[in-house]
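Same chain as my last thread, 152 residues:
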Amino acid sequence: MPIPVKIKKLRPDARIPAYQTPGAAACDLSAALDEAITVEPGARTLIPTGIALDFGAPEGSDGSVAAFLFARSGLAVKRGLALSNGVGVIDADYRGEIKVAVVNLGAEPVTVEPGDRIAQMAFCPVLRAAFEEVPEISDTDRGAGGFGHTGV
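reply #2:
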């Protein structure tokens, strides 16, 4: 079921996010740039989208929805452009411009043109924790095993 999302264009050339297929879980975000930028191998930069969002979280609410930004698989695999923070999180009460933090993990420079699709955004429910400090926590068969404890 769609959630209502209000979008404010901060630049006249900003593009409204769009789902590329009927079954797409995430919509694409586009670069709102005055001119192309080149991201050198190993370099990081913020790419503006020219939009701000309002998808809930009135004052005092629990922020039960968040938007998550992910790399576009084609850009990551073919050109090495990924999100420098792994996954971006847009809280429901954030009202500033959406910017995408990217890193060039490839061996060649990557040029981003105005209007290029640079990331994907999915809206997901969020549960908030009620933390309780305790002297002990329950044990399991796994215990503290992690980081490949079951094999590679």
